[in-house]
Amino acid sequence: MKQDTSTKPQPPKSLAIAVYRMVLAVFLILLAVLLVGSLYGVLRPATDEPLFRLGRHETIVRGGGLESGDFTGDGYATFSGIGRLRIPLSGEPPATVVLSVSFPYPANDVFFAEELATRVGEFRSIATGYFSGLSQDDISGFDEERAKAEILSGYNELLHLGKIETLFFTDLIILD
Asked: How far apart, in Å, do the first and last CA atoms of the chain sit?
């Protein structure tokens, strides 16, 4: 009978026990942090400000600077995320309209504000489509209120969580 004299070296049992204890300790610490954070979140008053913010939160301009008295005050913010548009007019001679569109919305409606932010490209397309169809002759007899009404109607057709009540053209310049 042959005896197996070759044995594989075994790691010391004390090392295996030390690694096991270390992994268990890290797991228990993470579990404790998770439980404490969850309890804090549940017991914290809903009216408290966030502990920290990620990204830019100063972009909302509250109240003031609006042309209509119905939208001034702390209850409204101004959405100006569409930016300045440079729209070439159709026809000859070539001309360009420079336009900035803004509008008030309820400042406390976070979901509507998020929807507005996701629709910026479509808002730009609607305004660009409206003005790019005009010629320089059409612009000479331009009715700003009619343009606002048509663009506002296009914007509101896109929105599901709220409606825009009025538009402001903060810049409206025609360049020859």
From this structure: 107
**Helix, strand or coil, per DSSP, at residue 170:** strand
The whole-model pTM stands at 0.57
Task: Answer with the residue of higher pLDDT: 104 or 75.
Answer: 104
- Alpha carbons 51 and 167: distance in angstroms, whole number: 35
Residue length of the chain: 176
Helix (H, G, I), strand (E, B) or coil at 77: strand
Q: How many Å apart are CA 37 and CA 41, to the nearest integer?
A: 6
Torsion 23-29-32-34 (CA) sign: negative
Q: How many CA atoms lie within 13 A of 82 on its CB side?
A: 29
Contact 71, 93 (CB under 8 A): no
Average pLDDT score over the chain? 80
CB 171 within 8 A of CB 100: yes
